[in-house]
Amino acid sequence: MKTKLGLLYGGKSAEHQVSLRTALAVNKALDHSKFEIYPIYITEKGEWIKGNQLNGPVDKVEDLQLQQSGSSSDTEFSAKLFQSDDGKAFDIIFPLLHGPNGEDGTVQGLLEILNLPYVGNGVLASSAGMDKVVMKNIFAHAGLNQVQYVSFIKSEWNAETESAYDQVEKELGYPCFVKPANLGSSVGISKCTNRQELEKAFQEAFQFDRKVIIEEGVTAREVEIAVLGNDNPKCSVAGEIVAKEAFYDYKAKYEDGDTALIIPAKITKDEYKTLSDMAILAFKALDCSGLVRADFFLTNDGKAIINEVNTMPGFTPMSMFPLLWKHTDVEYPQLIETLVQLGMERYKEKQSIKYTF
Fold it and tell me: Which CATH architecture has domain 220-350?
């Protein structure tokens, strides 16, 4: 019997297009002889639209941008969104949502309330992993080595603008990086080398979030490790990102391809051991499940610094997470099926928990 799988993608987020590309790639890679695949598209306005069962791979992103049929029942939020053509609930949901309103625990909480199995991280890990300030605070408690950082909410910045800039210069200095606290894919991130750039960076970042984080700049290599599993996670080989620009921004990631990915990274066995141990510690500190990509800085003297983890990393075949597993002898289709199995295992475990006494 085929597994009934709901492919959830799109979303009311600045990373809507990234999600569409991911959904296209996953749909092409899924074995349609094993899965009944149903698209569930969240428009940029936040409307939910379920399509008919996909009888084969979809070739274009545009084919996944489902249109309203004119019937309100097609776009109203209801249990039917998560049912196959025969009226039965999906066996599992595969959320391919990036950024707020999808990767941040909101959709995961909805699926928990509906008691539906789903792929990937749960509410806590998704929420904490999305908020870079909360994530770094948890990492600090776990004893993970990090760069220095400060953060501000928009009202604080509006009330004490110059004081915020002064604090950044006093505690971090230049260069530094200003980021929205709750976005991925390098959206809204700026590198600053002086006060003028810092002021502009704050204005840019606050367009995307009510909270920003500012991190000190370090001279280091950018090395990433993919983590896969539930209670006993495993690490992939390490990969290195070499960006031609000042840093690995959204345009370099998704538009120009103006980076080089070196897999496996040229690091020592001891360095790999340190990074993989830190990746597992970060995974467990956030109570992650399914998948995580852990991003590190590796200084010239071999010091390992965790930058962040991504609880729903880029997931096209050419994204770092699948490429790292490909070089660890796990091909893309196998990786997807493994994640589906991990999601089902976690759901089964949760069903054994007593909620009454």
Answer: 2-Layer Sandwich (3.30)
